[in-house]
DNA sequence: TACAATATGTCTTCTTTCAGACATATCTCA
DNA sequence: TGAGATATGTCTGAAAGAAGACATATTGTA
């Protein structure tokens, strides 16, 4: 029971706090959209539409949480994202809130 | 900056994972809708519409996460909610997922 | 006695979000 | 050379969610 609850909760977090998960993932290493999609799908066992992902990545860049540079390999262009200091602060704030949630200090 | 980020994240969690926050609150002590509303509003500094709260509480009871009994005091009726074992399991699963989030074991 | 607070509920309109299609181009392997 | 994978983007119709009104009754206080 608890295991299925956990899967459900993970899915809810991915759905509602996807941007933070992306920041966390890119924080481990710079990554481009397509790879992010595959990583999220294998890590969390969820489907991630590219039609949802790419606009979100662009929005995170516009907000200053991510910075991108285009890498060209042959004729193929990859938009590689790095996390910014602002992005790292957001992730730190998230982890801080989660700790309070667990300790019930809210 | 981090503080305003924290407020934003708390608001997002309340918005998207309100049911879990209600379970956590009722877990500390049995409570009725109106008191829950006031508690959430002071604890998290957010506004909680009663038009959103009452249907959610009823839904949580229908799912078996909460159980209610009506307490009559004079002519006034309070619907006091208790958390069920199933509800406790859901909260445990949530805390477990949060721990994994912090430790990046996801 | 009138107003604010306590107490619980529904319902409609508006807004936001979501799923999936539409669109294009390269690369690899059979 | 054709199919599947890589790679990134937009757009629209449908579904879900939110805000606020509508609804009713009691209690306490000025």
Overall description:
The structure is a homodimer of 106-residue chains. By secondary structure, chain A is α+β, with helices and mostly antiparallel strands. Chain A has helices at residues 2-16, 18-28, 33-44, 50-62, 85-103; strands at 31-32, 66-73, 76-83. In chain A, 66% of the residues lie in helices and 17% in strands. In chain A, strands 1-3-2 form a 3-stranded antiparallel sheet. In chain A, helix 2 (18-28) crosses helix 5 (85-103). The longest helix of chain A is centred in the last third of the chain and has 19 residues, at 85-103. The mean pLDDT of chain A is 94. Chains A and B meet through helix 1, helix 2 and helix 5 of A and helix 1, helix 2 and helix 5 of B. The structure holds a DNA duplex (30 and 30 nucleotides).
List the helices and strands and how they pair.
The structure is a homodimer of 106-residue chains.
Chain A: H1 2-16, H2 18-28, E1 31-32, H3 33-44, H4 50-62, E2 66-73, E3 76-83, H5 85-103
Antiparallel strand pairs in A: 1-3, 2-3
Helix pairs in contact in A: 2-5
The structure holds a DNA duplex (30 and 30 nucleotides).
Measured distance between first and last alpha carbons of chain A: 27 Å
Number of strands of chain A: 3
Oligomer: homodimer
Q: Number of DSSP helices of chain A?
A: 5
- Determine the strand fraction of chain A and express it as a percent band: 15-25%
The greatest interface here is: A-B, 32 and 33 residues
Q: Note the main sheet of chain A.
A: 3 strands, antiparallel
User: Percent of residues of chain A in helical segments?
Assistant: 55-70%
Low-pLDDT segments of chain A: none
Globally, the shape of chain A reads: globular
- Average per-residue pLDDT of chain A, rounded, comes to 94
So, the CATH homologous superfamily of chain A? Winged helix-like DNA-binding domain superfamily/Winged helix DNA-binding domain
Radius of gyration of chain A (CA) equals 15 Å
- The succession of helices and strands of chain A, N to C, reads HHEHHEEH
**CATH class placement of chain A:** Mainly Alpha
Structural class of chain A: alpha+beta
**Total domain count of chain A:** 1
